[in-house]
Amino acid sequence: MIVPEVREYSGLHEYDGMVQDLSPDGVRAALRRLGGDPLDDPHDEAHLSAFENALRFQFGELELHRRNPLVHLGNLDLSSYDREYAPAEE
User: Fold this and answer.
1) Residue 27, exposed/middle/buried by CB under 10 A (0-12, 13-18, 19+)?
2) Is residue 89 part of a domain?
3) Does residue 30 form part of some domain?
4) CB within 10 Å: which end of the chain, N or C, has fewer?
5) Residue range 11-60, pLDDT digits in tens
6) What is the DSSP string of the chain?
């Protein structure tokens, strides 16, 4: 759901050029993809669950993507491409 942050902090080139779909259908689809099998570590699972619940609230109930233009700015930020962050073959 947060492609700009994943692109910035993961260091994976598979997110290069990817723009988050913040259309109503795109957000609904992303919210449906949240969840899954629980993690092995209960501490990690608690953190992930809290994070996913926050996303459900922000994008599902508050619909911040419809009210806050700052949510869209991450898709336009090219500064992550200004520096080497992972070898291109990765």
Assistant:
1) buried
2) no
3) yes
4) C
5) 777 777 888 899 999 999 999 999 999 999 999 999 999 999 999 999 99
6) --HHHHHHHH--GGGTT-----SHHHHHHHHHH---SPPSSHHHHHHHHHHHHHHIIIIIIS-HHHH-THHHHHHH--GGGSS--S-TT-
Domain assignment of residue 17, given as a range: 3-81
The model's pTM: 0.77
**Residue 88 covered by a domain:** no
Tokens of 54: 């926050």
Q: How many domains does the chain have?
A: 1
Q: Is the pLDDT of residue 85 over 70?
A: no
Q: How far apart are CA 40 and CA 30, in angstroms?
A: 23
